[in-house]
Design brief:
Low-confidence stretches: 6-12, 235-240
Shape: globular
Distance between the termini: 39 Å
Order of helices and strands: HHHHHHHEHEHEEEHEEHEHEEEEHH
Largest sheet: 6 strands, mixed
Helix content: 40-55%
Radius of gyration: 25 Å
Strand content: 5-15%
Oligomer: single chain
């Protein structure tokens, strides 16, 4: 009778209950890591939580296989996305919020599965950070045109990483934050002091880039005004009362004109109204046209009017109209990046099987070309609301010679959630990325004036009529990030994918030879 050979204790598989407890513990840790990244986003100034969240993720992925990396990444993604995107369900409930968060978490999981594969390569924190950046690139284009809202860069308007936006835009900030976190994980895992440099180097790079963030007025200064007229009610029916939103913005502009006449406010060179400030088409409605003319005549300067226009075929356009006191409408910019499930409804028949809210989504026509408005030396690039989340949209408009950026936005659909603060963080990052002041005009808040260094000089509260009047610099010098465009991002994506391919080849060779990769 054969005598069974004893298996060394170190090689014995862990008892099943212990293994399950270990997996549950790691999954909870992954959720906590994702939650830490969420807590780094505004309105909280706790930007330093983001690299700590990535450190937790790095410790989990360092020795994990791809399938485990996918699972931990999905948990990490849920911990980050579920609270971050809660605003999407403010008035429609879980049917919008949780599926969106789950899809975004699945895309995060694809990244983390790849990161787990490169975890055994020399210099793995570098490859892991590159693959995280590649994952953000994927989420910015897929599905339905992409959803880059949760880019890690948008958690950093207060942090030491922000100046990196002037060098490489949002991808470089994401890479730096992730590299810090993964560097910390490698330091904890190996206890090699030299790895502390990997964790600290991105922070030092951010501090070193600070002098590159220009704020001087190279083309002089102008006075701008952002009008926040407020809405009759929050929610999906914010503009249900015909002309109510328009009347609010006309009234607040006329109040500004009275303040100017009384010497309580300086006269602006340009006034910015929010997205959808004219809730009816002023080309089709003489009463709306007359109201806007009255506001422009009262303030005496051009107004960038966010409006909803209706084409002859009945399809609406989300358009900003440059409206002058002398000539009325003289130029237009139509929003090019439309919001899925709001301004457009992909796969409407399919999603109608789950909820009839899909029939409240519109069928807007997208704009076809970038553009700028020219007003007495001002060359204004417009990024309408959702567009400010997209690198290429803002870059293409600024590339036409813009020396000032406006972000007209309508956040009334999302009530008092964190959405408006998250979007304001994007405005601040774009200011540094392109070296331009940014004027944010919101229907219901928060409106703000952002300096070229990303600092907020003036802002409003939520659901309060207000007017912000501020002197801002006009800048003509372009940043390195603007000049390089998407090249830094694609270099990082290619480098990350090359590392992944190398790890897969090494892993396949190791399996064939029976050696450890």
């Amino acid at each position: 009778m054969a005598v069974p050979t004893a298996v060394p204790a170190a090689d014995q598989p862990a008892p099943a209950p212990r293994a399950r407890v270990l997996v549950i513990g790691r999954t909870v840790a992954a959720l906590a890591g994702g939650l830490a990244v969420f807590l780094a986003f505004p309105p909280r100034p706790t930007w330093w939580l983001a690299p700590l969240g990535f450190a937790v993720l790095g410790l989990l992925l360092r020795t994990a296989r791809a399938r485990a990396g996918f699972g931990y990444g999905f948990a990490f993604g849920l911990g980050m996305m579920v609270p971050l995107l809660a605003w999407t369900g403010e008035f429609v409930g879980l049917i919008a919020w949780l599926p969106l968060a789950a899809v975004e978490a699945l895309l995060v999981a694809l990244s983390t599965a790849a990161i787990a594969v490169v975890g055994r390569l020399p210099g793995w924190p570098l490859w892991a950070a590159l693959l995280w950046t590649a994952g953000e690139t994927l989420r910015a284009v897929f599905p339905f045109g992409g959803f880059p809202w949760a880019k890690v860069a948008f958690s950093q308007p207060e942090g030491w990483y922000l100046p990196l936006a002037a060098l490489g835009g949002t991808p470089l900030i994401a890479f730096a934050v992730a590299l810090t976190g993964f560097g910390l994980a490698a330091l904890v895992h190996t206890r090699r002091p030299a790895l502390a440099l990997v964790a600290v180097a991105p922070l030092l790079a951010g501090l070193a880039a600070t002098p590159l963030v220009g704020t001087d007025a190279q083309a002089g200064e102008v006075t701008v005004a952002a009008i926040q007229g407020n809405v009759p009610r929050a929610g999906l029916d914010f503009n249900a009362q015909r002309r109510a939103v328009l009347d609010n913005h006309v009234a607040r502009t006329e109040q500004l004109a009275a303040d100017i006449a009384a010497g309580r406010a300086p006269r602006p060179d340009l006034v910015i109204w929010p997205e959808n400030a004219s809730d009816i088409d002023p080309y089709r409605n003489p009463d709306a046209r007359a109201a806007i003319n009255r506001a422009a005549d009262a303030v005496g300067v051009p107004i960038a009017v966010g409006s909803v226009l209706v084409d002859p075929d009945g399809r609406p356009r989300n358009t900003v109209i440059l409206w002058t006191p002398e000539q009325g409408p003289v130029a237009e910019y139509t929003k090019r990046q439309l919001q899925p499930f709001g301004e457009t409804m992909p796969m409407r028949d399919f999603f109608r099987l789950f909820t009839d809210y899909v029939d409240r989504a519109n069928n807007f026509r997208a704009g076809e070309a970038p553009g700028v408005f020219t007003v007495d030396g001002i060359r204004l690039a417009v990024a309408t609301c959702y567009e400010v989340a997209f690198d290429d949209i803002v870059r293409e408009n600024v590339a036409l010679g813009a020396n000032l950026i406006a972000v007209p936005t309508n956040n009334a659909t999302f009530g008092r959630t964190e959405m408006t603060y998250q979007q304001l963080a994007m405005d601040r990052v774009r200011a540094v990325e392109h070296g331009r002041a940014v004027v944010v005009a919101a229907t219901s808040g928060v409106s703000a004036i952002v300096a070229p260094d990303g600092s907020i000089t003036r802002s409003t509260g939520l659901f309060t009529p207000d007017a912000l009047v501020e002197r801002v610099p006009l800048r003509t010098e372009t940043t390195m990030a603007h000049r390089l465009g998407a090249w830094p991002e694609w270099v990082m994506v290619v480098a990350g994918l090359a590392a992944l391919a190398a790890a897969l080849v090494a892993g396949g060779r190791a399996r064939r030879t029976g050696t450890t990769p």
